[in-house]
Amino acid sequence: MMMDETLTEKIRVSALIAVLVIDDAGDAVPLAKALLRGGISVIELTLRTPAALEALSKIKADVPEISAGIGTILSPDQVKQAKERGAAFGVAPGYNPSVLDAAKKLGLPYAPGVSTASEIEAAYERGCKTLKLFPAESLGGLSYLKNVNAPYAHLGIRYIPLGGVSVGNLRVYLENEAVLAVGGSWLAPRNLISEKAWDKISKNCEEAMKIAHEVRGK
Which residue among the candidates 33, 58, 132, 137 is catalytic per the annotation? Predict the structure, then answer.
């Protein structure tokens, strides 16, 4: 398994993962505190900006209650960087064997991205039972997930759908037992982070967590 049971359970209980694009590492700590106030305890800092790794370090130091992972990992070198900075986990948009090998070698809990049955099988064969389904809605949403997972449901594979998931369809995803948690940028969009709209971000999180609690209990 590329994610141990303790981390997997924490993600399951959290139900939501905030996917963050941070342009200024100085926003990292107030952002993390805003997310925490809204009930979010697991985040993915995407490597789409140069500020991501510094933001990770700041959050780990000042808001240790947050489990902070690194996303958009596209190379073995980025796995190394994430591990050195103390990322709780790593996530990729696709299935890249060299990235998976690096994560295994360095001991970074890791969820590769999948979008096809072949990728699900390849990831499972390599020991991955927690997979990122991306881009979830463009692939066909929950209907697609149900169909593509049908041959593998008995294996205990769990998915984290990202891409097009929002407060509007959150409930139906969380109601599916194959969904470990859902991820999304709508909780803290890039523009709200840049505007330092911390109260708005907390409100977004509270709204989503209310649905998660209704579906899965507190």
Answer: 132
